[in-house]
């Protein structure tokens, strides 16, 4: 009845959407892109791209390839590629990126650090060595609320 398809995950495609009117609490890890149009509380680790839409907000530390911010993030952002803060975007936290673009009207409050992709990857490896194992992190659960 169900076929087991082993398809390669494309980091250029968005496969996870937190829709408008949705509140999500918990840590998200994804190999493909993520788009937030609702509200998220919890960290995001993404091999692909993360987009926070105009009505989206995240109280979160975000780690992704590219980050497009048209809504609000309260927390730190690490982009191994480019971080774009749109005219409606607001980042309240520190950032590390290889490339940074802030449109007129965009807000950034924090400190910035520009690094090459290799330096960011080395930081990732150091952070991974010092992080809590997934088994120890099992106590944190995800709660999906829709109002």
TrEMBL record:
Region of interest: Disordered: 123-147
Highest taxon listed in the record's lineage: Bacteria
Coiled coil: none
Family matches, as Pfam families: Bactofilin
InterPro entries the UniProt entry points to: BacA/B
Similarity comment: Belongs to the bactofilin family.
Name the UniProt record assigns to this protein: Polymer-forming cytoskeletal protein
Organism in which the protein naturally occurs: Cohnella candidum
Classification lineage: Bacteria, Bacillati, Bacillota, Bacilli, Bacillales
């Amino acid at each position: 009845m169900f076929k087991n398809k082993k398809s390669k995950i494309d980091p250029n495609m968005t496969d996870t959407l937190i829709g408008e009117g949705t509140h999500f609490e918990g840590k998200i890890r994804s190999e493909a892109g993520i788009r937030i149009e609702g509200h998220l509380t919890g960290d995001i680790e993404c091999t692909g791209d993360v987009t926070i839409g105009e009505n989206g907000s995240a109280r979160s530390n975000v780690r992704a390839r590219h980050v497009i911010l048209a809504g609000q993030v309260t927390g730190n952002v690490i982009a191994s590629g480019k971080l774009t803060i749109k005219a409606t975007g607001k980042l309240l936290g520190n950032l590390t990126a290889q490339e940074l673009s802030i449109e007129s009207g965009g807000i950034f409050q924090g400190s910035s650090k520009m690094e090459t992709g290799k330096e960011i990857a080395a930081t990732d490896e150091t952070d991974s060595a010092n992080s809590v194992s997934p088994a120890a992190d099992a106590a944190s659960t995800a709660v999906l609320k829709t109002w």
